[in-house]
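Methods: holo model generation. Sequences were used as deposited, without trimming of termini or removal of tags, and paired with ligand SMILES retrieved from the corresponding compound records. Each pair was processed once, and we did not select among multiple samples. The sequence and S-adenosylmethionine SMILES for this entry were:
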Amino acid sequence: MTARSRSITSRQTGPHEDLPRRVARALTHPLRKPFAAHTREAFAEASDWRERRGTAPLILDAGCGVGLSTRRLAERFPDCSVLGVDRSADRLSRDHGRLPDNALLVRADLVDFWRLALDADWRPQRHYLLYPNPYPKAAHLKMRWQGHPVLPAILALGGRLELRSNWRIYVEEFALAVTQATGVAAATEPFAPGPDYLTPFEQKYHASGQALWRLVVELPHAPGLVPVG
Ligand SMILES: C[S@@+](CC[C@H](N)C(=O)[O-])C[C@H]1O[C@@H](n2cnc3c(N)ncnc32)[C@H](O)[C@@H]1O
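and the model returned the structure below.
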């Protein structure tokens, strides 16, 4: 990966005007997408692994890419079980060193995995969304997590949720969505990773001089956020 990385370009100059409607829709219309078989298998594997680890608190690294952040979080929080989830087998297969005993990487679609986790009453202590795909075209709002029908399940899991991005608007939109859905205030703040970057994308953006943004919010476990029907 090179140190030069282009910053996000988008016609949007602020949060998407359709965001409140998308969030309201996600809160009232059940997501009926069937669970993919490979994600069910990955969830079963992750559940067995968690059971073997006893009562260790869970840290979810959602969209972990090559799993560097999963490794680093596992080292930083040795008493926790750190689970990295990504849909890309290619990224997950890259060699980034031995996985600590308290870490596991699984290939799964988060749209299904989050809902399975909520159904199984998982309550992550920490939940990371590190540099999610920005989908900067205005027409792609529904592909960003804050505009996606799975948003209520992400928030309902609860815990300390941290989002990082090199696109300020992404984080601002997510903050608005959090507050609309949960009533909990969430602020966007500038973020400087220092030498201890958590992910390859973070390193790449930082090394090319881009500003980074994040949001950290403590959320209650609230399965009632997800519409049923
Ligand atoms: C821009 S990369 C960031 C990866 C990593 N967090 C980092 O910062 O280096 C976004 C990651 O999200 C993953 N991803 C996107 N949508 C996903 C989904 N529905 N389920 C699982 N992973 C997904 C992609 O495969 C990709 O690895």
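Residues 63-65, 69, 85-88, 91, 109-111, 130-133, 199-202 surround S-adenosylmethionine (CB under 6 Å).
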